[in-house]
């Protein structure tokens, strides 16, 4: 747009200068942070204060956190969740990267059909496979084991991981691989020395999503475990009880929820640049 008096083009106002954009950002932040604040607020209350809907805890106390951290079953469940989520993430990234690379690079018929079949696995709800898997796991001796959780978690994390990494590998110019071949590298060396570093934002994004799914999953963890040996954190919290039959363990549940949220928050803070880069990759292509 040009100024009628001077004939010069007026500079466009960026989105960062638009007050409506900042109002929308403020609304989203409040909507996202208020539940977290209320969770922390509740975790710092004990006794009669739990029944009061106060914006701040009248008598702040770490009693709930002490009770949770002194619970051996919860600590074991925390370790189980870490093992299951980390193993699932590593296996999902490894298998997905090896599957996505040829799908992105090789000229072959039926690639769209293959990707469609892979993604169709995610359409099955967990409740549909929980009952048959319970019976099968009993027969195979995988019931109430960590391996028995990692395998079904992979079936849900792999399809989306493969599909996402295919799109990232397609964005990497083929000329970079060809230049690596000219320098004498093998296809595998070009893969892990050239392709993987360039696809790091996508790999970080997929890894975070896989970890969050395995960390938060409840249905299969509750169906395929029965004791603290393999029980994960979401299921362990569901078994929390109050000091008496008539007491709701609201304070300890809130404290445990805050504790298990910390690893996810740290992961997002550490890899936030790669996650943003991965989510926006290709958005300005053209």
Describe this structure in words.
With 286 residues, the protein is mainly alpha-helical. It is built from 13 helices and no strands. The chain has helices at residues 19-43, 63-69, 72-105, 111-120, 126-140, 147-171, 174-182, 187-198, 200-216, 219-223, 233-238, 250-270, 272-279. Helix 2 (63-69) crosses helix 12 (250-270), helix 3 runs parallel beside helix 6 (147-171) and helix 3 runs antiparallel to helix 9. The protein is globular and about 70 Å long. The chain starts with 18 loop residues before the first helix and ends in a 7-residue tail after the last helix.
Features:
single chain; 286 residues; mainly alpha; 0% strand; globular; disordered C terminus
The shape is globular
Radius of gyration: 24 Å
Flag low-confidence runs. Answer: 282-286
Total helical elements: 13
Q: Summarize the biggest pleated sheet.
A: none
Span of the ends, CA to CA: 24 Å
The overall strand count is: 0
């Amino acid at each position: 747009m040009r100024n009628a008096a001077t004939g010069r083009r007026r500079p466009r106002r960026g989105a960062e200068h638009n007050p409506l954009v900042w109002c929308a950002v403020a609304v989203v932040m409040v909507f996202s942070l208020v539940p977290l604040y209320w969770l922390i607020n509740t975790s710092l209350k004990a006794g009669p204060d739990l029944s009061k809907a106060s914006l701040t805890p009248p008598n702040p106390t770490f009693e709930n956190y002490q009770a949770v951290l002194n619970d051996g079953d919860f600590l074991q469940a925390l370790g189980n969740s870490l093992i299951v989520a980390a193993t699932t993430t590593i296996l999902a990234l490894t298998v997905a990267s090896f599957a996505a690379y040829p799908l992105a690079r090789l000229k072959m018929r039926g690639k769209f059909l293959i990707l469609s079949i892979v993604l169709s696995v995610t359409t099955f709800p967990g409740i549909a496979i929980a009952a048959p898997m319970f019976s099968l796991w009993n027969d195979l001796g995988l019931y109430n084991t960590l391996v028995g959780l990692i395998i079904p978690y992979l079936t849900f994390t792999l399809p989306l991981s493969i599909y996402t990494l295919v799109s990232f590998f397609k964005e990497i110019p083929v000329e970079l691989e060809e230049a690596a071949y000219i320098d004498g590298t093998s296809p595998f060396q070009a893969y892990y020395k050239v392709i993987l570093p360039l696809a790091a934002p996508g790999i970080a994004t997929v890894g975070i999503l896989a970890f969050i799914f395995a960390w938060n999953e409840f249905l299969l963890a509750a169906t395929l475990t029965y004791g603290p040996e393999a029980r994960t954190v979401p299921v362990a919290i569901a078994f929390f009880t109050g000091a008496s039959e008539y007491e709701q363990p609201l304070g300890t549940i809130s404290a445990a929820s805050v504790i298990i949220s910390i690893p996810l928050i740290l992961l997002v803070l550490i890899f936030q640049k790669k996650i943003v880069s991965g989510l926006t990759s290709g958005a300005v292509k053209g």
